[in-house]
């Protein structure tokens, strides 16, 4: 199994990618989503998820209101992660973050990303993306699904983390080890 990950500018795009990953045969329990929720940007989705969980009719109405991709997004939960701030998450990532109680002993979000199979080099970049308000999708894909998973992610707007970090560097970011200041949300990502 390989972990495939990407970042999305919009939660709706990430939700559509997750739905497509399920359609190609990847089990829901192998799909994770995490997004920064600074300034309660994704609270509308949390409210819809709570409403959708109350009944099948509400779930259908919620899906219609948000278009494709709401099915898996209806499972979102909100958390606060020290060093990162408020987030929304689902899947194994949510289980890891909630179950470990997150903190210095577990390595925070970077530790959870390592547990999901994200490399030591890329984990700080994904953490930065989440801090900036991007939506991260990570999927554990069997070899037979790997190529289709990459296509599904890209077709729904998924972006390579290295491309994102190059953009941050061009705008003055010096990397996670060199930036002791609190992170602010990247308003360029939030164009929903």
- Structural class by SSE content: alpha+beta
Number of strands: 5
Number of helices: 9
Main beta-sheet strand count, sense and barrel state: 5 strands, antiparallel
Give the averaged pLDDT, no decimals.
75
Gyration radius, in Å = 16 Å
Tell me what portion of residues adopts beta-strand conformation: 15-25%
**Contiguous uncertain segments of 5+ residues:** 58-70, 102-106, 178-192
What count of domains describes the coordinates?
1
Order of helices and strands: EHEHHHEEHHHEHH
Oligomer: single chain
Distance between the termini: 33 Å
Question: What are its keywords?
Answer:
five-stranded antiparallel β-sheet, 192 residues, alpha+beta, single chain, 9 helices, disordered C terminus, 46% helix
Can you give a write-up of this model?
By secondary structure, the chain is α+β, with helices and mostly antiparallel strands. It has one domain (2-178). 46% of the residues lie in helices and 16% in strands. The protein has a 5-stranded antiparallel beta sheet with strand order 1-5-2-4-3, with helices on both faces. The longest helix is centred in the first third of the chain and has 13 residues, at 11-23. The termini are far apart. Residues 58-70, 102-106 and 178-192 have low confidence and may be disordered.
Q: Any chance you could write out the topology, listing elements then pairs?
A:
Elements: E1 2-8, H1 11-23, E2 31-36, H2 43-54, H3 56-66, H4 70-73, E3 77-81, E4 85-90, H5 92-100, H6 108-115, H7 123-131, E5 135-141, H8 143-155, H9 161-170
Antiparallel strand pairs: 1-5, 2-4, 2-5, 3-4
Helix pairs in contact: 1-8, 2-3, 6-7
